[in-house]
Amino acid sequence: MQSHIGRTHTAAERAAQGRARCTDDVEQRRAGSRKRTAGKAAASAGSFPPAEAVREPARTAAFVIRHRLSSSAINFERKLHARSSHARPVRVEDLDVPAVVEPTDAVIEVAAACICGSDLWPSRGLEPSGGRPMGHEYVGTVTEVGDAVENVKVGDFVVGSFCLSDNTCEICRSGYQSRCVDGGFVQGTQAQYARIPLADGTLVVVPGGRPKDEATLASLLAASDVLGTGWFGAVAAGAGPGKTIAVVGDGAVGLMAVLAAKQLGAERIVAMSRHEDRAALAREFGATDVVAERGDAGVAAVKELTGGLGAHGVVEAVGTQESMMQAIGACRPGGHVGYVGVSHGVSLPGQELFFAEVNLLGGPAPVRRFLPDLIDRILKGEINPGKVFSLVLPLDDAAEGYKAMDERRAVKVLLRP
Question: What is the reported pTM?
Fold first, then answer.
């Protein structure tokens, strides 16, 4: 398991390291199909911070440092690695800064990243990491774009979906950019720099540039995945005026589903949580009721609140067998279940599903569909999803962030490169 971070060095270090590189290597790296904007434009965008403002490289034997010339500076990138057969330790390493590979790519300097609940599965050893870079939630400033990129430019501050999409194929046009025919998933954004393929269809420019206040920055980061995923869950559950919506799961996605259901006009919102701090946040986001019971007892509690009928819609935001069956059981006939928890070992019994007579819709959230609206609501101050971040750490301390989330000491951890 890996997660990236990059770093610039002092002018003296850059000069010394630059002299150690041959001219042919520099020219070769500058070749290829990519655009660069140098000088004042890049500097004003914050692409390369002043040398005196940058921290010195960490001195630890765990780091493997390799060099790459990037524009006028030599940058280093650190990645988080988690290796072992079961619980996997997380460590940070210096590796190369990414560059444009395809003409549809962009490279961003990450302003903030975070740890997703789905990141915990490989860190626990419950699914293979395959050595992939970790992190898929991000906001940042564009530092480089490929020749085919038209919608974003160097210096733009952007939010991107965790799913890659061209936003032009038939599936994308139908609103399911998460299943783009040319798409995939973003990787490696727990980093100082990250390469984003299909930049035109994945990234959305934030009007007015990088926000000055940290609360707005955190909320925009939430939009990259957790808010958009909760929003999709609420939409899939049919949240709207006059509806009762139940939310199974009190993690970050479940809490965002509560917020979304409220924004979409739901009359009653039942948060299923047995943790008082999370229940309190759910109430702040709009929950009218909190049910602590799980499984069959949780289903019975929701039915008691709804005259024995069940909720009009239920958001499943965990991804386990128990949570999925609880969501289906708590939904009334003809209702809607929006399932957005990443499935692990879920197997639906056919006969029980047959007689439940509920509508099922879920999967990876098409966050790109919702991003323009979510960004607008955040900038107008209508929603503050950034409150879901209960712990903020420097990327150097990412291992502690993984541990805090795994032990449920933190709802969601924001990482600062």
Answer: 0.81
